[in-house]
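ok, trying the design again with the full structure, not the truncated one.
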């Protein structure tokens, strides 16, 4: 039953994202759109992935990654900002609240949650067809197990798109520079 419900909600999520992209089409001008992942891109997520922790509390208490706000929305200018993240639909309220608390501009049509990392590709392609896209996403997993792994096939697909892609290394460099300036 849980699996069936999860699959159904995943499909609903993808339908919602399709509608959100169409709504955004009216706002994406020649300046384009800024697309941001959340976990391990804006938020320091992996240290929170502990067994037995309530997922809602865990997401609400995530620490922001230093320097990422300034490097992303701090330079968004008039571009719409979209959050495209591999999270479950029922995590939207806590995600929305976290983004607002961290000073990220979020609207109903700008929070796009997808059931798998691979589900990010289609909306990215649709957004790229509308205008320039700047995309920040680590596209990694496994940090909590001590070995960072990458969604290499997805990375290759994203790099083949006509978008400005800021990857794991760019995010790390941004965070390191911000931490260095704090000392």
């Amino acid at each position: 039953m849980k699996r069936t419900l999860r699959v159904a909600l995943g499909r609903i999520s993808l339908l919602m994202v399709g509608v959100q992209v169409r709504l955004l089409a009216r706002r994406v001008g020649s300046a384009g759109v800024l697309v941001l992942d959340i976990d391990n891109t804006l938020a320091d997520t992996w240290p929170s992935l502990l067994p037995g922790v309530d997922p809602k509390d865990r997401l609400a208490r995530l620490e922001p990654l230093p320097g990422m706000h300034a490097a992303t929305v701090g330079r968004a200018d008039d571009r719409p900002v979209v959050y495209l993240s591999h999270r479950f639909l029922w995590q939207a309220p806590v995600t929305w609240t976290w983004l607002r608390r961290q000073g990220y501009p979020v609207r109903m049509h700008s929070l796009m949650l997808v059931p798998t990392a691979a589900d990010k590709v289609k909306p990215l392609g649709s957004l790229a067809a509308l205008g320039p896209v700047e995309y920040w996403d680590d596209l990694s997993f496994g940090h909590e197990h001590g070995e960072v792994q990458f969604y290499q096939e997805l990375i290759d697909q994203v790099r083949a798109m006509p978008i400005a892609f800021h990857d794991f290394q760019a995010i790390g460099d941004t965070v390191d520079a911000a931490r260095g300036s704090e000392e």
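Keeping the full-length input from now on. Strands lie at 33-36, 81-86, 111-114, 133-136, 140-141, 149-150, 164-166.
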